[in-house]
Design goal:
The complex is a heterodimer of chains A (198) and B (405).
Chain A: H1 7-44, H2 49-78, H3 88-94, H4 105-115, H5 120-131, H6 135-150, H7 166-197
Helix pairs in contact in A: 1-4, 1-5, 1-6, 2-3, 2-4, 2-7, 5-6
Chain B: H1 4-8, H2 28-51, H3 55-78, H4 82-108, E1 112-113, H5 115-119, H6 130-140, H7 159-173, H8 177-180, H9 185-194, H10 201-211, H11 214-229, H12 233-238, E2 247-248, H13 253-277, H14 281-285, H15 288-296, E3 302-306, H16 316-320, H17 328-332, H18 345-349, E4 355-359, H19 368-401
Parallel strand pairs in B: 1-2
Antiparallel strand pairs in B: 3-4
Helix pairs in contact in B: 2-3, 2-19, 3-4, 3-19, 4-9, 4-19, 6-11, 9-13, 11-15
Classes of the chains: A mainly alpha (198), B mainly alpha (405).
Amino acid sequence: MMVQPQGVRGHSRQLGLFLAARLAGYIVFATAAWLVGSSIQRAWTGRAGIGQAGIGQSWLMGWIEVLLAAALVVYAVGWPHRRCAAAKEAQGLVRIGEGPGPLRSGALALGFLTGINLCPPFLVAGVRAAQLEHLPAALLFFVCFFVGTAVWFLPFLSMGFVQRTPAVVTVARMVAVLLACWYGISGFSILIERTFYG
Amino acid sequence: MASSSSTLRAPALRGPAALRRPKAFRGVGRSILLTLPIALWSLLMFMAAFQRAGRDERIGSAVVIVFMTALFFLMMRTGETYRWRRIFFVALGFLFPFGFIASLIAERGTMSIPISRMVSGDTPFCFMVTPTIILPAAFARTIIFPGSILPTASNPHSIAIMIGIWFAMTLVLGKAWCSYACFFGGIEEGFAAFAKRPKLHRFVARYSHILRLVPWAILVFVVLVSAAIFEPVYCMWLCPFKAVTEFPAVRNVETAIQMGVFVALFVGLVVVLPYLTKKRTQCGFFCPFGAFQSIFNKINLFEIRFDRTKCVDCTLCQTSCPTVALSKESIAEGKTLLNCMKCGACVDACKKDAAVWHLKGTPVAVKPERARLLFLYGAWALATMFGGSILAGSVSTMIHWLPGM
């Protein structure tokens, strides 16, 4: 996204959308984690416990990674379609930050999906949120967590200069495809494992 | 400049060897004189081996001293670089796995290593993971590789020492590391040398502008994912050379898939494609460490340049380049691309002496042989120190295993 020819203002808008969607993902996850945690505490303590929640999370993790992989593939291979009038249905996701309206949906989708991507530290934070007594406390915990991780995205604002090198865009697309393969395989592995081994 | 159709035609040459200069470039006496520093350096490097008791080690070291000195003499005598360097490099490529596997078999009886031993740091450090460990090591004082940063009693060859050696060599060689120090690239260079003519030259010529970007993509992917999951992704999933060195023991479906990937990548990128293309396909179209090394070409003093007043745009240099580090545009600008490994193939292939070695900051094509000599002294000294010690170890192992020895 950051190598699209937009300038610093455009990149700031992109990054803002991405981070906003990511924050939304964090909040959704924090809420879900807290609800699950409080439900377990209220109803299932001593019967199902954390084990059931773990299975649910793994299923979710598998689907999230598969969705993320699909988004990356569309993002990577979709750019050439900008010149193709017949590919209008893909434009909403792939033409990121080029103008108003639906063209920003790619940044939002990617931000949200990475915001609810259940990486190990995220799961640990989720368990911590689930253990908290009040929902605002869980949300505050995840907002702080978000601020800590969002800082690392700021240097990307200065990457506009790479737009002068077309090779960088090609490499970025290749990386998106490779990451899509990685997350796709990872997601399907989880789903297959859950299907056959429970 | 030649047309694109001429580029796509089956090249008439059979590599730089077919174009070698037919005469003695220098006299014997002068060549010996120029070889003397390398001969002394080789003796110095292996002096310790002669003081040790092992007969096999002494023989191995003596063989390497003669081998490296003779090759450098031939470089001086003939004026060719690629042809003699390739002999060293292919020998290194094939003998490194031999010695490495032999040591693994002697130590633990198998090439495989259980994950538990891997995690505890029993696997030797490999320079390939350098790009993935530098940033975490700098910012978080931790590394994405099983091992210790500083030396320990059980592992004196710490990662810090290995990184130090790599960095010193990289400052001298730039991306020439991939042609004079890497102990993997020689295998594919050997398989590339087997074929008389390339069979996929049209494909390579047509897609070279895309193919040469793939290592960069893999580099970014490996760095990102390694940092995200805190695991050396390249070692665990993508290294073709795991198939001929050390690999995780196959204990479940995941490790079986890993092994399948290693074998497929090795057979495809290191054996089959080099034979079909006469290119170093793993180095040029896959290796993320090679892409990382390319960055250091920017700060390295030595490079290959093209004297446009002599160049006739025959594209022999482009065809001969084993890693597609030349394009028509770069030749027109008198430069190589960033991924040039300074192997010397283009210089040897050029019939008009338009491709020349160059020391940055000096005029192009003025005393290019001086630039070549300066580069070769550094490169060959490091090749003798690093690759030579590997060769000596493998040769001594070979002698040890020979029946009746």
